[in-house]
């Protein structure tokens, strides 16, 4: 091909189209003939976090459905394992998937499980693209990436907002489960609100950390937190625990409630109904974000699963997306180490949440949004109010 003909083709197709159409000498084999790969999915398959695990599985599977069940041109066999609810059960899940020769891992809901499997993943040198659990204590990792958030960011996003919204004579009661993630949320909230601000001067009220609480699990702790007559409550719960906490809180407190978005995400709203009205949350995603990627994702998700997508599903969809790009970049016969190196070379990700990219700690630099639970016909919905901050 002479120079003039090449320039004509470039003008007609664009540089990207030309390269994609002609391939390159470095491609070991055409993408249509690439060998099958195995990806390991780690999620809770029972208990209070099962609904979150289902959303994570759904999001990853949707990406595969929309991309001919391939990642980086390779047909994918998605292997699943139950993370359970402890470091021990999480490690067993990882070990089982590694024995089956997975190219990469994804999922993980519980922060305690993520901390517990850290060394196993790092020593195996197999990349884990976590799509939910992301405690700030997870530092200096090389093979663990997260497409979700870092928990202190949820606190920071709301802390700055609530600092400006709360009246000068107001007071916030902070109620949290005694688990791995809560100190992160509290620290971020205090940093952004102002640690010395008397409006949040009371000690945090910590509650039982069970994922499957009973109908009175939180009652005594809620009464303790409300003893000083707060004007607002800041809390951090998810899944079945969120449902029970809000039900028990609303028996004693009708004022404003603020929280990271997990409090009202997914099946929680279906169970809470009117009790959730007016709750404001901060999250890295809202199903009504108006961008092309979200319109495609949300429409396909609703069509396939008959429900509105959550941040859990979105982050897992993005985990599949970054794996797709990294595996493609790694070439025709990638190994886990090559995929991990390729993840570090990815730039901006065009996501349903908006454009984001990995930062140095291997977590997203992304926008956070304010949402409010409002009535949408016969159902409750997290309605996008505005953008809070870009963090990460």
Mind summarizing the main beta sheet? 9 strands, mixed
Mean pLDDT: 90
Strand content: 15-25%
Helical segment count: 13
- Structural class computed from helices and strand pairing: alpha/beta
**Which ranges are low-confidence, i.e. pLDDT below 50, for 5 or more consecutive residues?**
1-29
Spatial gap, N to C terminus: 47 Å
**Rg computed from alpha carbons, rounded to a whole number of angstroms:** 22 Å
Shape verdict: globular
Helix content: 40-55%
Q: How many distinct beta strands?
A: 15
N-to-C SSE series? HHEHEEHEHEEHEHEHEHEHEHHHEEEE
Task: Note down, in words, how this protein is organized.
The chain contains 13 helices and 15 strands. It has helices spanning 3-13, 15-22, 50-66, 87-99, 111-124, 151-165, 182-193, 219-226, 239-250, 268-272, 292-305, 311-330, 336-343, and strands at residues 37-43, 70-71, 74-82, 104-107, 128-130, 144-146, 172-177, 205-207, 232-235, 257-260, 280-283, 349-351, 354-358, 364-376, 379-391. Strands 7, 8, 9, 10, 11, 12, 13, 14 and 15 form a nine-stranded mixed beta sheet that branches. The radius of gyration is 22 Å and the shape is globular. The termini are far apart. The model is unreliable at 1-29 (pLDDT under 50).
């Amino acid at each position: 091909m002479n120079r003039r003909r090449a320039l004509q083709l470039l003008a007609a197709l664009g540089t990207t189209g030309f390269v994609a159409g002609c391939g390159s000498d470095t491609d070991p084999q055409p993408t249509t003939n690439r060998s099958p790969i195995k990806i390991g999915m780690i999620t809770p398959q029972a208990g209070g976090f099962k609904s979150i695990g289902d959303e994570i599985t759904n999001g990853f599977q949707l990406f595969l459905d929309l991309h001919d069940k391939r990642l980086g041109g390779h047909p994918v066999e998605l292997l699943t394992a139950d993370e359970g609810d402890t470091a021990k059960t999480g490690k067993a899940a990882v070990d089982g998937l590694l024995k089956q020769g997975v190219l990469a891992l994804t999922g993980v809901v519980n922060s305690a499980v993520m901390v517990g499997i850290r060394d196993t993943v790092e020593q195996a040198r197999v990349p884990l693209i976590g799509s939910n659990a992301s405690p700030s204590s997870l530092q200096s990792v090389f093979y663990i990436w997260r497409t979700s958030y870092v928990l202190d960011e949820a606190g920071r996003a709301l802390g700055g907002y609530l600092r400006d919204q709360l009246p000068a004579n107001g007071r916030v009661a902070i109620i949290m489960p005694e688990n791995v993630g809560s100190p992160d949320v509290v620290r971020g909230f205090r940093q952004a609100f102002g640690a010395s601000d008397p409006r949040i001067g009371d000690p945090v009220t910590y509650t039982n950390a069970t994922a499957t609480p009973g109908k009175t699990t939180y009652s005594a702790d809620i009464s303790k937190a409300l003893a000083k007559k707060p004007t607002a409550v800041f809390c951090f719960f998810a899944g079945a625990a969120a449902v029970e906490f809000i039900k028990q809180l609303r028996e004693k407190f009708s004022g404003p409630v603020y929280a990271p978005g997990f409090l009202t995400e997914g099946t929680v709203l279906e169970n809470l109904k009117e009790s959730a009205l007016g709750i404001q949350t901060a999250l890295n995603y809202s199903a009504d974000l108006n961008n092309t990627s979200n319109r495609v994702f949300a429409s396909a998700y609703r069509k396939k699963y008959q429900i509105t997508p959550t941040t859990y599903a979105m982050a897992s969809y993005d985990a599949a997306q970054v794996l797709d790009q990294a595996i493609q970049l790694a070439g025709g016969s990638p190994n886990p180490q090559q995929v991990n190196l390729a993840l570090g070379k990815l730039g901006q990700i065009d996501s349903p949440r908006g454009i984001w990219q990995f930062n140095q700690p291997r977590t997203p630099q992304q926008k956070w949004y304010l949402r409010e639970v409002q009535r949408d016909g016969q159902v409750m919905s997290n309605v996008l109010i505005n953008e809070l901050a870009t963090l990460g």
